[in-house]
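User: Let's play a game. I give you a shape written as tokens, and you guess the letters that built it. Ready? Here's round one.
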């Protein structure tokens, strides 16, 4: 079995996966950094600062990446796992804090997992649906989905597309309209509604 750890840019895996999946089971591991502590060290003075990053990753972030390899999601030997964790990121800068230049890049960056929160198996169609918040109404649009998963309206297209494709294309559940897009015309033009 082949294991691939990929933090982003799943499109770079497309060619490799297309070959490997013909003969080998492949597990793609997607790290989700739910909490990150930033540790900054200045090499010359020894000054150190520690703070929490405001950016928090969510398991639903993976939909953007899955969209990039959507043609491969039906391969039976492909497994995908989202690993939710806390991480310490250490950035080492040359010089001193007061002498740091604007936009100066760190000399070295290391990331160390400090706590494993959850491993989510999103290999099977049902697990894709489980990533979508249950607070959504039975009919919802892209704006509703974006608010529920904490993404922009544009990015909410990816989970709707992926889940609809998984259920309609792989399991043949077209009849039950799981996230099947329905185009309606209203006050603001064409609106895509999705149904559970």
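Assistant: Ready! My guess for every position:
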């Amino acid at each position: 079995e082949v294991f691939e750890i990929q933090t982003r840019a799943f499109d770079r895996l497309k060619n490799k996966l297309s070959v490997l999946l013909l003969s080998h089971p492949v597990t793609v591991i997607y790290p989700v950094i739910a909490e990150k502590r930033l540790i900054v060290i200045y090499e010359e003075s020894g000054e150190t600062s520690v703070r929490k990053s405001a950016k928090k990753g969510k398991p639903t972030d993976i939909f953007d990446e899955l969209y990039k390899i959507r043609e491969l999601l039906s391969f039976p030997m492909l497994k995908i796992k989202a690993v939710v964790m806390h991480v310490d990121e250490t950035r080492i800068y040359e010089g001193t804090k007061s002498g740091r230049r604007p936009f100066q890049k760190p000399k070295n960056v290391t990331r160390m997992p400090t706590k494993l929160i959850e491993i989510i198996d999103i290999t099977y169609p049902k697990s894709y649906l489980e990533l979508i918040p249950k607070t959504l109404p039975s009919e919802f649009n892209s704006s509703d989905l974006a608010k529920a998963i904490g993404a922009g309206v544009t990015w909410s297209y990816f989970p709707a597309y992926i889940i609809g494709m998984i259920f309609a294309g792989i399991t043949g559940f077209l009849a039950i309209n799981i996230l099947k897009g329905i185009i309606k015309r209203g006050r603001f033009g064409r609106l895509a509604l999705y149904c559970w």
